[in-house]
Amino acid sequence: MGTHEEAxxxxxxxxxxxxxSATGDPVPDVESQGTExxxxxxxxxxxxRQLAMAPRSRAELLQKLAKRGCTAEVAGAVLDRMTQxxxxxxxxxxxxxxxxxxxxxxxxxxxxxxxxxxxxIEGQLADDALSSISDEDERDRARALVDKKLRAMHGLxxxxxxxxxxxxxxxxxxxxxxxxxxxxxAIADAPExxxx
Length: 196
Hints:
Largest sheet: none
Order of helices and strands: HHHHHHHHHHH
Radius of gyration: 28 Å
C-alpha cells in the first residue's frame, strides 16, 4: 500500500472524507479491507429490517436470525436489547394479532390460539391475549359472518345454506354447538325464510 492509499485509509477511518479525497484517490471502503462485520450489528440490522416490514414475535425473529446464520448467543443478546428498548414486545404483539385476526378474518378463539402458537406465542401470554374475547363477542362475530354470507346465498335451499355456513365457521375455528345455534337463528331471521 502506497503512502497516498495509507493516508486515504487513515482519513476514512477517522471519518475525514475530505482529507481522504484531497489526495485525488478514491476513498477506500473499510469493509472491503478484510474487516469482518460485527455479528451483533448484522443481527441488529436483520431484526430492524424484519420489524420494518411487519410486527414480529421474538420467536419469529429468532428463527429468522438462525436462518441467516447468527449464533444463538448473538441472537439472544440482540433480541434482549430490542426487548429492553420496546421494539420486541410479545405481549403487545399477541394482543394486536388477536384483535386484528378476530376483527379482520373473524377467527374464533380456537383458531386464534393456533395462530398464536405458529407465531411462537404460547402459555400465559396467549391466554391473556385470548381472554380479551368474551363468549358474547365470539357469538356476535359468528353471527355477523353468517349474516353476511347468508345474503350471498339467497335462493339456495336451507340444507345447502346450513352446510356452507357450517363449513365456513368450522374453518374459522368456531365450535359446532355455537355454529349450529347461530345458523339456526340466522336462517330463522332471514326474510326469505319468514312465513308469509
